[in-house]
Amino acid sequence: MNVEQSGSPDFSPQHLPRHSSTTVNGSSHASLNQDISLTRKNQEPSDPVSSKGRPKTGLITGHDIMQEISKTKRDDLLRFEQMDPSLSGRGAEPIFRDKKGQRISKEEYLKSKQKVEEKPKEKKLEWGKGLAQKRDAEARLQELEQEKDKPFARTRDDPDLDKMLKERVRFGDPMAHLVKKKHSGPVLADLGDSEKMKESGFIIPQEIPNHSWIKRGLDAAPNRYGIKPGRHWDGVDRSNGFEKKMFRRLNEKRATEREAYLWSVSDM
């Protein structure tokens, strides 16, 4: 169906005249473009102050950067000085709080601080790293000090060397019981008889009770760690028998290995 015959105009682009100036809201495209171009040419920056305060771009030197940084700092300081004290908090009274966060007066804060300063500092316990290790280190240090004063070469008549050889216990020696010291030292070391421990308020009782296995002359059963019982053990074995079974099994295993080895070399 032809549009022209229907009587309605055809506004499609291909049928518009080539040099026609269509009006939009009473103005042509040419005048609209002219107005836009004039507006762009005559347009001025909305905020000239902010454009001046912008940092320089492009190739700048270190001196220019330092000047910009110092200027920014001066502007910030001036802005802070001109700020309202209610906003900046300048000249406001300090607020003191206790441990719970509640407000207290200055006098109460000073009193609490003075109490903390007057409180005596707790003395560090001497056995923080182990008294036995510390005593061993002191004994080794004392031994080194003694060795330092001795001559470089040792002779047969050296009393310390002679004493050490006499007190040495050798495996299979039938007279080893005669070599033992007549006055042996205490079985348990005195780990609490120290002035520093007493000053700290931690005192370990060192007396041996009457029911102790030490006073009763009993022997403690061996264990896998080689640790002797304390002075308060009464000599009664209350274990489940695991240590005895373990040592018995180890002895049986060693005996079996020994017997197998003897059988293997019997023909050689």
Automatic annotation (TrEMBL):
Residues 1-11, 19-40 have a biased composition (Polar residues). It comes from the Eukaryota. GO terms for biological process: mRNA splicing, via spliceosome. GO terms for cellular component: RES complex; U2-type spliceosomal complex. One of its GO terms (molecular function) is RNA binding. Belongs to the CWC26 family. This is Pre-mRNA-splicing factor CWC26. It comes from Hevea brasiliensis (Para rubber tree). The lineage of its organism: Eukaryota, Viridiplantae, Streptophyta, Embryophyta, Tracheophyta.
